[in-house]
Amino acid sequence: MSEQQRLFETSLPSPAARDQAAQNPDGTKPPAPKRKRAPRADAAISNANSSSLAPSSPSPLTVSELTALIKGALARDPALGQTILVEGELSNVSVSSRGHAYFMLKDDGAAIKGVIWASVLRAMPFELKDGLAVTVSGALDVYAPNGTYSLVARRVEPIGVGALQLAFLQIKERLEREGLFLPDRKRDLPAFPLRAGVITSPTGAVWHDMMRVIRRKNPVVSVLLAPVPVQGAGASQAIADALDALNALRGPQALDVILLARGGGSYEDLFCFSEEPAVRAVNRSRIPVVCGIGHEPDFSLCDAAADYSASTPTAAAEWAIPDYYAMTDALASRRDALLRALGSQLMFFEQSLDQRATRLLSVFEGVCVRADNRLRDQREALIAAMEAVYANSERKLSAAAAALEALSPLRTLSRGYAMIARPDGSLIRSVAEVTPEDALTLRLSDGEILAHARAISPMSPHTP
Can you give the pTM of this predicted structure? Predict the structure, then answer.
């Protein structure tokens, strides 16, 4: 804030103080202030020689006296002393840290300073911008410290468009730049909501109409009402607070969908649904929001930010809440269709399984026949091979038996020889192994003889 603005803001009286100062206690305006003349040094000489003194000139005024005269003249002027309307274009708009707005109101030929006190500025629905053509309603006031006059605005109206419409356009442009209305921010509504929140006035017909629609369509849905004012000052913030509160519910109390609704009304009545607090709350809601505000031609910025916008409150309820009975009928129809399709599929699979089983059995039988034939051939070949082995083994055995027979002691015994053995079965091969009276076993070809040695007579080496 410039030094000039600071001094102007500090010294310039507020509208209430100025009006009070400009009136007597009985409500009438005081007379213009009398000028205080400076004391003259030649007053005594003038009285003594009045006949020789030239005609007197006007007494000089102080700056404060002149400023007071100007303020008094403005106050008494029938055109400027009361509320005046001035048209022009805003420029050099600035807002001080205290919330007062300063501007220049100009046209092609002149410019005048202006001020809007913070209390008036806060009540304005739109934003002051350079280049905006406006009609200012206010009063002129003189700023004594630097001798300038200014227009103290009590009301500002845009030219060519209403104040609310201009505010609507300014808010819409600002939020569009932030991307609050982009289609990709929209979310799908839940197919089967079980808990719904409704934000509206509890005293209007809208609440009862919506409940009638919801109960007719879906008696199993539970509904939570968040009562709010739906028009007037503070309504937008109350709507935003209600949206935040419903979004904060968790657990069994958590909602599936939120309906924001209001009946028809004037543009001014519906404007709270286009103010920033409500629109931003709709945008940041994590729960899908369905708007039903006003009637068919009505449109608010909450409609633009919502996930779905219905033409009326009852249409919002119709759209957000699915028909329970239609769903059950559709479910039964789909169940029957599913059972029929399942039966057809089972029959198809059964037939396919039978065909495949038949083909599999045929293939298996062929495999079994071929395996049986191979087994029979292999068995016959094995039998033939075994018979050949047996025959060869038999021949070898016969030859071995004949050779063994030729070498068999029994064959020798059959020729009259005998084998002598001790009773334990050990053979005696020499007379040196026998002593007299030894028990001996004589094995002949047809039996054995038990004997005792009577005498032993070894043979001479030369004995034939």
Answer: 0.50
Per-residue pLDDT tens digits for 278-297: 999 999 999 999 999 988 77
pLDDT given at position 161:
63
pLDDT at position 263 over 60: yes
* Tokens 């068919």, residue located: 296
Helical axes 276-284 vs 235-247, angle rounded to 10°: 10
Cα gap 86→172, rounded to integer Å: 28
Helix (H) or strand (E) holding 139: strand 133-143
SS (H, E, C) 195-209: EEEEEECCCCHHHHH
3-state secondary structure string across 423-458: CCCCECCCHHHCCCCCEEEEEECCEEEEEECCCCCC
- Rounded to 5 degrees, φ, ψ at 156 are -130, 130
User: Residues 278, 240: contact at Cβ < 8 Å?
Assistant: yes
Structure tokens at 299: 């449109």
How many Cβ atoms from other residues are within 10 Å of residue 139's Cβ? 20
| Residue 146 exposure: Cα atoms within 13 Å on the Cβ side | 14
Question: How does pLDDT run across 206-237, given as a tens digit for each residue?
Answer: 999 999 999 999 988 999 999 999 988 889 99
CA dist., res. 323 & res. 221, Å (int): 10
User: Which H, E and C letters describe 240-284, residue by residue?
Assistant: HHHHHHHHCCCHHHCCCEEEEEECCCCHHHHHHHHCHHHHHHHHH
**Cβ(77)–Cβ(124) under 8 Å?**
no
C-alpha distances out from residue 402 to 23, 100, 397, Å? 168, 145, 8
Query: Do the beta carbons of residue 233 and residue 293 sit within 8 Å?
Result: no
Do 135 and 163 contact (CB within 8 A), yes or no?
Answer: no
